[in-house]
Structure formats: C-alpha cells, structure tokens
C-alpha cells in the first residue's frame, strides 16, 4: 500500500499539443492518501480513464511525475508498480476455468500453490461463484465475466492500489449493489488505496470517502460527498451531482445581497466585489415555493412524483429551475414565488465558486 | 406457426439446381461413368464394375503419390501456419506501415499459379537464375532438376513464399479484433509475453486459424500447376503429387478408367478431411456461442 502523488501531471494524446483543448488531462497536482477510497467522477471523455491508466502505468504521461510513497515511478512498468486494475468491459481468459482465471495474477507472481488455492476460494465466495470454479470461462454471461475480472483485481492482497474503471457498467442493478457493498467491505477489511472511476454519482457517493470530480480534463473539486453537495466548487459539480442538479441564476452580488432579475435575494454571507459572469447556485432541496410574498416570480411547469419526493419543474423569469418537495408536502396552492434558504446559496464567478468575504479567487 | 405450402416455390430453386447439375453433377457422373467401364478404342465400352477401383487401391503408384502428397501438405502446413502467425504478430498494428505491409503481403497472392511456377523455375536455374547462380557461386551443389532434396526444397519454399501471406493476413485479422483491454489486463496480471500469446492471442485467433489451415490444406492437397511448371514432377517421380499423377494417367497415358477411379477416390479423401475440419470448427463455434 502506498501514497500516490501526482506531480504537475499532464497528458495529451497528440505529439505536439498546441491549445488548451489538446490536453486530455490538464496539469494536476494531487496526493492520493494511503488507504483511502476515492471515486473519480465525471462525464464521459473528461480524462478519468486517462488518469487511471497513467497511475497504473499503462500510459506514460506527457508531462510531470508520478510517485509512490515518494519514489518516482513515472517510467516504471506496470508490473513494478504492483497495482490491480479492473476495466469497464470484462476481460477473462477464455480457455481457462474460472478458478484458473482467479489464480492467474498470483501464479504469474510465483505465489505458493496452497496460498493461491486459499485466496481463490475466498474471492470466489466473495463474488458468489464458488460452485463454478471448475467451469470454463468461455461462454459465461457478461455479468459473470465481469465478476471474474473483479475477482482477479482483488485476489492479490499486497497491491499498492486497486483501480476500478467503471467496473459495474455491464452488471445488472441488483448485483451492482451487492458488489459495491463487497468492495466497500474489502476496503474496510484490508485498507487498500482504491480509486473508483464512474460517471454514476450514486455509485461515487456511496462507495467513496472522497470524491474527485473531473471536468474537461481538469479536477474541479475533491471532497466528501457532503462537501460536494453543500459547497460545489464549480458549477459543473453543482450541476453533475444531485438529481436534479443545482439551479443557477445570473446575478449581481454586492455585500450580502444578490440581485436576480431585479429582485434582491439575501445571501448567508458578505462578499467582496465579484467580477466576471456572476451566478448564484441553489440546490433544488433548498428552493421554497409559496404563493405571493417575497421572492422571485415563478411559474410551475409540471410536477414529477418520483416516490421519495416530488420534483417541481419551474420557469423563473425565463430560466429553468427545479425544486424538491418532500413526499408528504403538497405543492402550495397558487404558488407563484420562490425563495431560497439563505445559508444554502453559493456564489459563482465565471463558473468557479467565490468564497464569502474574500477577494475573488478560486476557492477550494 | 403455420407454414404456407406452395409447391410452385420449387421453381425458384430450379435455376440453382440446373446450374449445379451442369457444373458439378453431370461432369462428376461422366467420371463415374468412365470409372466403371473399359474400352479398346473406337468408342466401344465394356462394363468393368469396380475393377478399376480395386486396381487403383492395389497400385503402388497411387499410394506413393498419396504418400508424397501427405508429406508435402504436412510440411507446408508445419511451416506456413507458425510462420504466418509469427509474421502477423510482428506486423505494425496501425498507420502507414500497417497498410504498406498488408499490400506487400497480398502481392504473392495475386500472382497466377503458373507465373509463380515460372518465376521460381527461372529463379532456381543454375545458369541464369539469381538463386541458383548465387548458390552455385557459393559452392553449394544445388540443382532442382537432378537432386530430389533440392527439388522438394524448391517446391516447398515456393509454396511458403506464395501462401504464407494468406495465413498471416487471416491471423492478423484475428489479432486486430482483440480489444486493448485484454493486453492491459494482462499487463496488470503480469502475464509474460508467452502467456499473452497462449491465453489471449491464440484463443482469439483459433477460429480464423482453423479456416487458414483448412484452406491451405485443401489447396496444397490439390496442388498442380506450380510443381508441374518447376519440376514437371521430377526428378523421376520425386515431386509427382496426386494431381500431377492423375493428369499423367488421364491425359498422358489416356487410361480413362483408372484415372476416373483415381479422381473419385481423390475427391472422397478431400471431402472426408474437409468434413472433419468442418465438424471441428462448428464445435469450436458452439463452445464460443453460449
């Protein structure tokens, strides 16, 4: 197990990257603490898999260094890094049995046969395939194959880190929960450093201690699920995490008041003058609907009942917005105003969050 | 489900039946016809029953030709299949050089058989051929018209030159269909190069390799033009393979009866071996397709 440090890391798939857009992974400095479970969250094509492949050594970064416990491994081959990785699509060795598949990484490292048998059995129990160990892997369902891939990733105990590249994409929902829980249990038991790539926020939030959100080749925020929810550092985080995502309104901010569509909205804190394109962001959970009184004029477009709560789709002066009401709360009759929980409002300038009270800058 | 019965539909199949009848069944039946009759000329035929078949089965000449044929096919399969795989493994995966290699490899496949024969016939000549001349200068006593080993070596190298590309191209296609993730996973699992070949590349190539082996086997088993042009079946009968012997018998000696019996048995052998291949291949597919 090891602490993994990314030092000024950047990658481009082009030989001579010119503009900013040519970089699949923009410059990045980060420590992956030993023994933590991270989720790497972002939409498709934002550089998540690139980053993962750089860490495991399948890809050499164009720039910067990568260190394991302070040792530079930028040029070290995958084997030397002692990392386990599970890929999005199942990789099984067709001609081997399920058991041989699970034993393969251990055998290649010349482990003791008795130890191998023991590990294979416990991993098989974990993925629920004890009774199929002697079956040939050829012809199994995608589900089963991916479980074998996961098993092969977990079979070694001494790995520096376990990397998962959207491993549950092909698995059916019921098994997804179960495997994710087992992965968490595994992390709890053995304390491996785990990095779990996904574009599914539920998966990220339930699996990880810390979620790393990537957008357009850049890490935009690293934080606990709660931090991501309450204080999204970038409008993308606000939009991507949460269902539905954060509401954004163009605004002018001075002191502790934001002006949205000519209406004053009180803020929880006082802000230094903010330049650039200024927006305020409020999660639907903190939007209140009422008839008349204070707030922004709004029109209810429709109400979606999703079971645990209701989502109210709104038109606020031409801007689409959402509000969430608890299951038991009825939509107020004749509601034509929205107001926001003051403490839950975040201020953004040019998409980045502005910390209250400070001069404008990127706040973590 | 109810099937509509319409006997007129047979008319749709009729053209194919007629085509196959004229191109395959009728010619084959004339061969069958010859194989059971004897003649002393003047277009007068006598019933001979299965005598010709019996004769052929007892004929040392046919068994020798069959033996040579099997040795030849085994040798070229033993060379071309591993060599083709080796070439495919070492070809560039993409970019300009991949296309370049593909074109280069396809070239021998495009040359007509008798031209290939002529090329090698001249290439190997001691007086004017580049290969023969250079070997003679180096002091190697090489002469494919006199020496049995030299004749065999020439014919085999010629076939390898002509057809290894086919195996390589098929194997290459098989390799190209392997997703990157397999190689990445193998790296993570610390599989050696040999294990990558044994557990990833070979199983993924198995299907196309079976086709390559079948094609190469059938083709080499029926080989005629190239050795005929180069060695004419000699020296002596050293490179007289089944087809060459058959032509000698049918056209050279005009022994129509024995030649017809011979070709029917030849046909059955190829059919039998192809059937075995086919069965093995479909079984492989079944294992894949669950």
From TrEMBL, chain B:
Question: Where does the record place it?
Answer: Cell membrane
PROSITE patterns of this UniProt entry? ABC_TM1
Give TM segment ranges.
12-36, 70-89, 96-123, 151-175, 196-218, 259-278
Going by the entry's taxonomy, the superkingdom of the source organism is recorded as Bacteria
InterPro entries in UniProt: MetI-like (IPR000515), MetI-like_sf (IPR035906), Sugar_ABC_transporter (IPR052730)
Q: What are the GO BP annotations of this UniProt entry? A: transmembrane transport
Could you tell me the keywords of this UniProt record? Answer: Membrane, Transmembrane, Transmembrane helix, Transport
Membrane topology qualifier: Multi-pass membrane protein
What Gene3D superfamilies does the database record attribute to this sequence?
A: MetI-like
* Claim: Disulfide bond is one of the keywords in the record: no
Q: Where is the ABC transmembrane type-1 domain?
A: 66-277
Q: Where is it found, in Gene Ontology cellular component terms? A: plasma membrane
Q: Which family does it belong to?
A: Belongs to the binding-protein-dependent transport system permease family.
PANTHER family found in the cross-reference section: GLUCOSE IMPORT SYSTEM PERMEASE PROTEIN GLCT, TREHALOSE TRANSPORT SYSTEM PERMEASE PROTEIN SUGA
Q: Quote the protein name from its UniProt record.
A: Carbohydrate ABC transporter membrane protein 1 (CUT1 family)
């Amino acid at each position: 197990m090891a602490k993994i440090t990314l030092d000024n890391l950047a990658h481009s798939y082009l030989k001579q990257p010119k503009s900013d857009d040519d970089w699949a992974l923009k410059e990045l400095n980060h420590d992956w603490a030993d023994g933590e479970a991270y989720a790497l969250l972002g939409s498709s094509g934002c550089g998540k898999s690139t980053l993962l492949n750089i860490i495991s050594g399948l890809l050499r970064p164009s720039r910067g260094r990568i260190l394991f416990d302070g040792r530079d491994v930028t040029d070290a081959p995958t084997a030397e890094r002692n990392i386990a990785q599970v890929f999005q699509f199942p990789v099984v060795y067709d001609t081997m049995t399920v058991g041989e598949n699970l034993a393969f990484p251990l055998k290649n490292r010349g482990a003791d046969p008795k130890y191998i048998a023991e590990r294979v059995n416990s991993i098989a129990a974990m993925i629920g395939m004890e009774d199929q160990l002697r079956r040939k892997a050829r012809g199994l369902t995608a589900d089963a194959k991916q479980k074998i891939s996961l098993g092969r990733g977990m079979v070694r105990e001494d790995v520096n880190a376990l990397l998962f590249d959207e491993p549950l994409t092909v698995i059916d929902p019921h098994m997804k929960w179960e495997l994710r829980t087992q992965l968490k249990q595994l992390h709890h038991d053995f304390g491996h450093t785990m990095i779990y790539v996904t574009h599914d926020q539920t998966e990220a939030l339930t699996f990880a201690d810390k979620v790393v959100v990537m957008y357009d080749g850049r890490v935009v925020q690293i934080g606990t699920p709660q931090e991501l929810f309450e204080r999204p550092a970038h409008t993308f985080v606000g939009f991507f995490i949460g269902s539905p995502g954060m509401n954004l309104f163009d605004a002018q901010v001075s002191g502790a008041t934001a002006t949205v569509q000519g209406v004053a909205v009180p803020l929880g804190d006082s802000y230094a003058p903010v330049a650039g394109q200024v927006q305020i962001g409020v999660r639907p959970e903190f939007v209140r609907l009422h008839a008349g009184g204070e707030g922004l004029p709004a029109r209810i477009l429709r109400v979606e009942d999703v079971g645990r709560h209701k989502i109210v789709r709104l038109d606020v002066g031409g801007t689409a917005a959402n509000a969430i009401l608890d299951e038991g709360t009825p939509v107020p009759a004749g509601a034509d105003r929205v107001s926001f929980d003051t403490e839950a409002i975040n201020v953004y300038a040019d998409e980045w969050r502005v910390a209250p009270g400070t001069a404008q800058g990127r706040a973590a | 489900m109810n099937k509509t019965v319409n006997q007129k539909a047979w008319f749709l199949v009729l053209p194919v039946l007629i085509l196959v009848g004229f191109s395959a069944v009728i010619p084959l039946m004339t061969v069958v016809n010859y194989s059971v009759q004897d003649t002393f000329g003047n277009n007068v035929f006598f019933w001979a029953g299965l005598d010709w078949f019996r004769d052929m089965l007892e004929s040392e000449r046919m068994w020798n030709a069959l033996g040579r044929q099997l040795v030849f096919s085994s040798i070229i399969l033993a060379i071309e299949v591993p060599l083709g795989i080796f070439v495919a493994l070492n070809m560039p995966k993409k970019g300009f050089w991949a296309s370049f290699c593909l074109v280069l490899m396809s070239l021998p496949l495009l040359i007509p058989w008798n031209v290939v024969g002529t090329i090698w016939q001249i290439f190997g000549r001691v007086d004017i051929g580049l290969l023969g001349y250079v070997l003679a200068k180096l002091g190697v006593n090489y002469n494919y018209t006199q020496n049995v080993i030299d004749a065999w070596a020439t014919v085999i190298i010629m076939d390898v030159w002509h057809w290894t590309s086919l195996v390589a191209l098929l194997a290459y296609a098989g390799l190209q269909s392997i997703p990157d993730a397999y190689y990445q996973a193998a790296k993570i699992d610390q599989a050696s190069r040999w294990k990558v070949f044994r557990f990833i590349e070979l199983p993924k190539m198995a299907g196309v390799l079976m086709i390559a082996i079948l094609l190469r086997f059938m083709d080499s088993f029926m080989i005629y033009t190239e050795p005929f042009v180069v060695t004419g079946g000699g020296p002596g009968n050293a490179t007289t393979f089944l087809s060459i012997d058959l032509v000698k018998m049918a056209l050279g000696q005009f022994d129509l009866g024995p030649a017809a019996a011979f070709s029917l048995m030849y046909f059955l052998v190829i059919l039998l071996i192809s059937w075995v291949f086919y069965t093995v291949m479909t079984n492989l597919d079944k294992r894949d397709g669950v």
